[in-house]
Amino acid sequence: GENVEQHPSTLSVQEGDSAVIKCTYSDSASNYFPWYKQELGKRPQLIIDIRSNVGEKKDQRIAVTLNKTAKHFSLHITETQPEDSAVYFCAASRETSGSRLTFGEGTQLTVNP
Amino acid sequence: DSGVTQTPKHLITATGQRVTLRCSPRSGDLSVYWYQQSLDQGLQFLIQYYNGEERAKGNILERFSAQQFPDLHSELNLSSLELGDSALYFCASSPRIGAGSTDTQYFGPGTRLTVL
What we know:
The structure holds two protein chains of two kinds.
Chain A: E1 4-7, E2 10-14, E3 19-25, E4 32-38, E5 45-51, E6 56-59, E7 62-67, E8 72-77, E9 86-92, E10 102-103, E11 107-112
Parallel strand pairs in A: 2-11
Antiparallel strand pairs in A: 1-3, 3-8, 4-5, 4-9, 6-7, 7-8, 9-10, 9-11
Chain B: E1 5-7, E2 10-13, E3 19-24, E4 31-38, E5 42-50, E6 53-57, E7 64-68, E8 74-78, E9 87-94, E10 106-107, E11 111-115
Parallel strand pairs in B: 2-11
Antiparallel strand pairs in B: 1-3, 3-8, 4-5, 4-9, 5-6, 7-8, 9-10, 9-11
């Protein structure tokens, strides 16, 4: 089955700096890669996603890049703010698996004012 | 608010007991997924239903079962509970399966289960 690895497990940045979180996946048939933000005790919230026919997607301060050949994808957050502090999860899925999401282990991002 | 609702919010019970968690998907969504989040296992897929039928199974224990009803709400039944079953249980929904693309999943607020 699919395996998703996520790095780093913790990331601390100063307000205004950029943050990058990286994930690798094992199943070359995976075609959908969402990123979720989860605050303590709350539900995972989708912040951005990318499909395998696209190499990069941007939404304001957030961008995701996908390298299908290397089987890795990354989340980039620019101009970080304290409210960006949360746990971020990457995930992968493919339609033929019923669209189940396989998650990475999460990255605790702390943005220091 | 994702539009996915889950009840109850919190559940405290004893080992050996049985509980039922309920999920109502977003209006119009046919697919429901259940995930378990524990400290040592992260977010793990349990099971998926699509329009009333089981579609995919993940690492779901035999003590756990689920179903999706004609009104599309879903219930996750956990029996013979053990201490290790304590976790956050999330339900997610999406409009459909496949048709050449993978649908976005929206998560409910979760049910926190504590087994004492």
